């Protein structure tokens, strides 16, 4: 544990050093540099920062005769502290750079190290501290699976508005994971006493980010869209039959506590949609009495589970329920009602489906 902590500390200092040296080479001995320092209560003071820089063999000049000013500011974040530093003069300013750490003292210490190096004359600049050898315990940990073979992540039910994630030098990888699934099952509730067949074509999209260290996470919610066929089904009364067929669609935002492109995928979704239902009513003699189309809206909650076989195929199952807003009814020739939804046009429904599909 101690070796791993030391390795993390040196990795942090090296990252900060690389960031600073990108925009600030060691100052010539004749160039005066002053300091403007800002930090929250509880952090090292400006004098302590100056002392830390001096302990490493460098110093700032009198503000009254300087040509350049180093701006150092520390601020607290949800996951620790961040320090920003920038060099300004009368005419221009370098790009602002940031370093991150678990504590304010760690951030200040790292900036003091790289500031001292940047203030030294070029011929006396010390090389960056070498990273210690890898800890044997850390070396025994299994390396992450290459991102092109497997993507794993999860979403959070209450994500923060913004988040800072320290990463090492390297390349961030962005992956768009997509799946298409054909489902078949049944739904009940939209038409009283009728179990209606349902066929879905569902598309799911998840955005993955992979850090240079191999850590993977999903950015934002998982998005789902579906197109469904409802029916055909028949409602029968003593003297009439009503044939029912419909189409519906939905768009959903999903939370995923587990998303593994080579294993299980679990989704909890909130969906908003609508559709069109055709109702064709005939008498006992087979003659048409009524034909009408009813538009409706829907609000649903659902849960979906998939299992991925390798890199292409998967199977899945999903259940859901919610409410539809529309007047589903049929009438006889004399105007009497055969069946109908509530006077408010509100009806509940529930469904269960099984399916198979592809992902890539």
Question: Could you describe the 3D structure shown?
Answer:
The chain is mostly beta strands and 360 residues long. An 8-stranded antiparallel β-barrel has the order 6-7-9-10-11-12-13-16. Helix 1 crosses helix 3 and helix 2 packs across helix 3.
End-to-end separation: 39 Å
Order of helices and strands: HEHEEEHHEEEEEEEEEEEE
Helix percent reads: 10-25%
Can you give the mean pLDDT? 81
Strand order, main sheet: write it out. 6-7-9-10-11-12-13-16
**Which class of secondary structure composition applies to the elements?**
mainly beta
List key phrases describing it.
eight-stranded antiparallel barrel; 360 residues; 50% strand; mainly beta; four-stranded mixed beta sheet
Summarize the structure.
This protein is mainly beta. It has helices spanning 2-23, 46-54, 104-119, 136-139, and strands at residues 33-38, 68-77, 80-89, 97-101, 152-153, 173-188, 195-210, 216-218, 222-236, 240-260, 264-283, 288-309, 313-325, 329-331, 337-340, 346-359.
Q: Which helices and strands occur, and which strands form pairs?
A:
Blueprint: H1 2-23, E1 33-38, H2 46-54, E2 68-77, E3 80-89, E4 97-101, H3 104-119, H4 136-139, E5 152-153, E6 173-188, E7 195-210, E8 216-218, E9 222-236, E10 240-260, E11 264-283, E12 288-309, E13 313-325, E14 329-331, E15 337-340, E16 346-359
Helix pairs in contact: 1-3, 2-3
């Amino acid at each position: 544990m101690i070796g791993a902590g030391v390795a993390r500390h040196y990795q942090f200092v090296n990252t900060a050093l690389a960031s600073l040296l990108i925009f600030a080479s060691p100052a010539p001995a004749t160039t005066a540099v002053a300091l403007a320092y800002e930090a929250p209560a509880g952090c090292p003071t400006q004098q302590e920062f100056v002392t830390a820089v001096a302990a490493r063999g460098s110093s700032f000049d009198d503000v009254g005769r300087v040509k350049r000013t180093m701006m150092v500011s520390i601020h607290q974040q949800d996951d620790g502290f961040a320090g920003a530093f920038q060099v300004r003069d009368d005419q221009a300013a370098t790009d602002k750079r940031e370093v991150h750490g678990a504590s304010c003292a760690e951030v200040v210490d790292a900036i003091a190290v790289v500031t001292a190096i940047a203030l030294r004359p070029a011929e006396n600049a010390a090389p960056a501290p070498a990273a210690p050898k890898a800890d044997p315990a850390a070396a025994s940990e299994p390396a992450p699976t290459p991102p092109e073979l497997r993507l794993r992540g999860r979403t959070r039910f209450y994500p923060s508005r913004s988040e800072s994630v320290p990463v090492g030098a390297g390349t961030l990888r962005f992956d768009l994971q997509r799946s298409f699934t054909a489902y078949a099952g049944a739904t009940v509730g939209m038409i009283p006493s009728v179990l209606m067949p349902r066929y879905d074509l569902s598309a799911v999209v998840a955005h993955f980010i992979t850090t240079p260290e191999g850590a993977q996470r999903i950015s934002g919610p998982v998005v789902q869209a579906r197109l469904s066929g409802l029916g055909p089904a028949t409602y029968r009364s003593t003297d009439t039959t009503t044939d029912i067929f419909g189409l519906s669609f939905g768009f959903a935002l999903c939370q995923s506590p587990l998303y593994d492109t080579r294993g299980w995928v679990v989704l909890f979704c909130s969906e908003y949609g609508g559709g069109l239902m055709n109702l064709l009513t005939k008498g006992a003699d087979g003659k048409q009495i009524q034909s009408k189309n009813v538009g409706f809206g829907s609000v649903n909650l659902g849960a979906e589970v998939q299992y991925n076989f390798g890199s292409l195929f998967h199977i899945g199952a999903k259940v859901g329920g919610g409410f539809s807003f529309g007047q589903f009814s049929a009438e006889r020739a004399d105007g009497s009602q055969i069946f109908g939804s509530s006077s408010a046009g509100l009806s509940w429904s529930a469904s269960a489906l099984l399916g198979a599909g592809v992902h890539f």
